[in-house]
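Example 9 (inverse folding). The structure is encoded as follows.
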């Protein structure tokens, strides 16, 4: 009894220690998870930082602004496009458009090639461009909300009404900026320290771009307009869906002509823009969450693609084996029987002929089993075969009858002689 009590107390102590260890482990995991969440929140951009980086481009036309946001996620291709444009300054717009179509850049980068001033801004200020792309990848909705907040701030300052070469409209408390002329886009330059009125975040002043040439802006004319750029290739393929706070795109290679914002947004072929890590060319993401988000989807796509390729290969192998089996049967001139491995081969029903001919007499009978007939065309042959076998069987039975009667007579005569 004492040993049993000692053993029971030992087991209880071990179970108690395991429960305490599990509780401490769960508490540590919760602390680590909360620290991870805090770090992720800390890595996200604040509203002040978003307003700071978006200030120089928030008043651009919507079509141009979508290309800037998308292309900022592919910084290496932006630098390549700017360098290529510098090397080929002597080419005209039509030659540039034809050559750019064959490059492997993203469609948004190709759309910015005619805008040399914007490409130079993005290429010169790489840190700003990378922050813009990271913010757009982390939270697209917050970026678009910050753009609308800046446009509202410029409206309250009374400067949106002074935009001459653009059409400013309002839709469901959203401010939309579009070019006045179709297929002609004007790029504005403005002083970010003046156009938004009183800046709300003094510790985060707006990004200010010094003009490349002599540009004069004032409170009366806060915008300077560069010469209009005529769009003659795939440009109008993306726009904002402001009420949903995301960017939608259509096939860029089918937009040779002007498409309005409403046509793109409400068209049946429009879909939400998705980031393509292939065009990023190995540039690291700002957080682990975004890297897992896009590289994880790429791995799933690769797995699905691999499984589909395997399924197609197995299907082709099955088809080739079935075709080989059918050709072999045809070469041997044998009837094709039902086989589970065959695909799309009609079933061939066989007719089994079994008949019995009984003969009148001493209980003699003859059974004949015919072979399988696989086609309806051979019915005449089977009938002829049946008739021939019928005549042969009758002759054979009469001969046996004569033999039997003769043997009976011989037996009777032999018995009579033995009696005498």
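The amino acid assigned to each position is listed next.
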């Amino acid at each position: 009894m004492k040993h049993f009590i000692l053993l029971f107390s030992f087991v209880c102590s071990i179970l108690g220690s395991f429960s305490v260890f599990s509780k401490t482990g769960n508490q540590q995991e919760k602390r680590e998870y909360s620290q991870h969440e805090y770090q992720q929140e800390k890595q996200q951009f604040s509203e002040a930082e978003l307003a700071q980086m978006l200030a120089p481009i928030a008043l651009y036309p919507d079509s141009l602004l979508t290309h800037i946001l998308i292309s900022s996620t592919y910084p290496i291709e932006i630098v390549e496009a700017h360098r290529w444009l510098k090397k080929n300054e002597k080419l005209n717009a039509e030659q540039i458009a034809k050559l750019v179509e064959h490059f492997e850049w993203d469609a948004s980068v190709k759309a910015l090639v005619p805008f040399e001033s914007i490409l130079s801004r993005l290429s010169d200020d790489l840190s700003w461009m990378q922050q813009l792309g990271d913010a757009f990848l982390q939270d697209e909705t917050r970026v678009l909300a910050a753009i609308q907040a800046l446009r509202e701030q410029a409206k309250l300052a009374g400067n949106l009404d002074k935009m001459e070469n653009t059409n400013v409209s309002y839709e469901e408390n959203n401010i939309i900026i579009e070019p006045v002329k179709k297929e002609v886009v004007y790029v504005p330059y403005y002083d970010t320290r003046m156009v938004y009125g009183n800046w709300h975040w003094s510790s985060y002043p707006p990004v200010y771009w010094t003009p490349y040439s002599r540009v004069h802006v004032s409170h009366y004319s806060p915008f300077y307009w560069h010469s209009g750029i005529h769009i003659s290739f795939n440009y109008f393929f993306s726009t904002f869906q402001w009420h949903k706070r995301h960017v939608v795109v259509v096939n860029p290679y089918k937009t040779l002509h002007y498409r309005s914002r409403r046509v793109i947004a409400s068209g049946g072929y429009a879909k939400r823009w998705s980031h393509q890590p292939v065009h990023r060319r190995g540039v690291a993401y700002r957080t682990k969450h975004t890297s897992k988000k896009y590289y994880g989807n790429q791995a799933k796509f690769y797995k699905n693609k691999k499984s589909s390729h395997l399924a197609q290969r197995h299907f082709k192998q099955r088809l080739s084996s079935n075709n080989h089996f059918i050709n072999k049967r045809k070469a041997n001139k044998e009837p094709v029987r039902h086989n589970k491995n065959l695909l799309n081969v009609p079933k061939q029903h066989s007719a089994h002929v079994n008949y019995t001919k009984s003969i009148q007499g001493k209980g003699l009978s003859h059974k004949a089993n015919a072979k399988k007939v696989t086609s309806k065309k051979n019915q005449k042959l089977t009938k002829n075969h049946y008739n021939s076998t019928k005549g042969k069987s009758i002759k054979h039975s009469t001969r046996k009858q004569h033999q039997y009667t003769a043997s009976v007579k011989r037996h009777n005569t032999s018995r009579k002689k033995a009696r005498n």
